[in-house]
Amino acid sequence: MADDLSANRGEQERVRTELARLQDDLVRLEESEQVLTQMQKVLGGTSKRTAKQSKSRKTAAVPAARRSNGKAAAGKQAAATGRKAPKKAASTKKPGEPTWLELTTAYLGGQSEPKSAAEVSDALTEAHPERTVQVTVVRNTLEQGVAQGLLERSKQGRSVFYSLATTATAPSDS
């Protein structure tokens, strides 16, 4: 009986750890979905998923007792693997706040030399501590600016740097 009890507890711990990992994966996927949805809105695209499909999407419910254990296990697992514990999903832009594209172009407009996505992200984090800044969002925004002709991309080895497009800063002759 003692061996069975020990095996049962070990299996419970294994399942809790797996659940915590899956919850962490789900949080990252949901954050990614929000970023992609925001980018799609900015680019003017429409979602292929209809509102009806979004409402009918089912998520697995975890009992409250396990949910708290799962979060604790996620924190322990994150500490053991050196990764960050899962965060809450990033909030969306509030009305009246500048867009990421406006923030990045304004920042790069004040720079004398091209900057990497990481440098732009660090500067935006420092300048706007109230907003959640993710390097991938900044990188995608910078690429959006390049696509729209607002920014220029240059490569130095494996590094990519961005600057304000020279046509965007030149005064018009008309």
Automatic annotation (TrEMBL):
Residues 40-98 are annotated as: Disordered. The keyword Coiled coil applies. InterPro entries: WH-like_DNA-bd_sf. Residues 70-83 have a biased composition (Low complexity). The keyword Coiled coil applies. Residues 12-39 form a coiled coil. Keywords: Coiled coil. It comes from the Bacteria. Residues 49-58 have a biased composition (Basic residues). This is Putative membrane protein YkoI. It comes from Streptomyces zagrosensis.
